[in-house]
């Protein structure tokens, strides 16, 4: 839960000349931004560079935020466009939901993931690792709903579909996440439940 002044209150003060208050928004959303960026790149160095770029772009565009949706929804759009632009510059392809090859690659990496599971992981770590096995589109909708706490209406706006379609996509993404967790993290899931 967020503590302190509301996002819109901070934004109005920043736009009114109190630029130093922007640091509160950066602190409040740095984990949110970094989590999303890591869905696009596995390089921590690249992720840090992209996250910094996101906050610079958001600051420069702050006057464009109209408050029609949550600040996190607006910021999410900047994160995804910045990530895609960065990846295009690096000539890395961005995979879509329709690319079933992602699932094959993830399934073939089972041995690697097992080797890295020596230590006991927290529930959040296991879930985040399982999300990384999903396609970009599935990871995005799971992240938006559970980590960014966006409503189905807001998710629909972000991905360009109506709320009912967003609900169906979320349901399917949850199913794929459950399958990945059961296949790759069976022991951890058993420990979580029992």
TrEMBL record:
Domain RNA polymerase sigma factor 70 region 4 type: 127-177
Domain RNA polymerase sigma-70 region: 25-91
InterPro entries on file: RNA_pol_sigma-70-like (IPR039425), RNA_pol_sigma-70_dom (IPR014284), RNA_pol_sigma70_ECF_CS (IPR000838), RNA_pol_sigma70_r2 (IPR007627), RNA_pol_sigma70_r4_t2 (IPR013249), RNA_pol_sigma_r2 (IPR013325), RNA_pol_sigma_r3/r4-like (IPR013324), WH-like_DNA-bd_sf (IPR036388)
Domain of life: Bacteria
Keywords: DNA-binding, Sigma factor, Transcription, Transcription regulation
Similarity comment: Belongs to the sigma-70 factor family. ECF subfamily.
NCBIfam families in the cross-refs: sigma70-ECF (TIGR02937)
Protein name per its UniProtKB record: RNA polymerase sigma factor
Organism whose genome encodes this protein: Niastella populi
């Amino acid at each position: 839960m967020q503590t302190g002044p509301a996002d819109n209150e901070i934004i109005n003060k920043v736009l009114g000349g109190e630029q130093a208050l922007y640091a509160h928004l950066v602190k409040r959303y740095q984990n949110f931004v970094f989590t999303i960026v890591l869905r696009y790149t596995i390089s921590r160095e690249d992720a840090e560079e992209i996250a910094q770029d996101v906050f610079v772009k958001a600051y420069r565009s702050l006057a464009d935020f109209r408050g029609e949706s949550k600040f996190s929804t607006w910021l999410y759009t900047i994160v995804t466009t910045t990530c895609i632009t960065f990846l295009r510059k690096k000539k890395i392809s961005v995979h879509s939901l329709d690319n079933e090859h992602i699932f094959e690659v993830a399934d073939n990496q089972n041995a690697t993931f097992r080797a890295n599971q020596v230590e006991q992981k927290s529930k959040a770590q296991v879930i985040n690792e399982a999300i990384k096995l999903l396609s970009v589109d599935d990871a995005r909708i799971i992240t938006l709903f559970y980590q960014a706490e966006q409503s189905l209406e807001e998710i629909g706006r972000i991905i360009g579909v109506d709320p009912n379609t967003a609900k169906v996509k979320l349901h399917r993404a949850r199913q794929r996440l459950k399958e990945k967790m059961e296949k790759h993290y069976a022991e951890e899931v058993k420990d979580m439940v029992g």
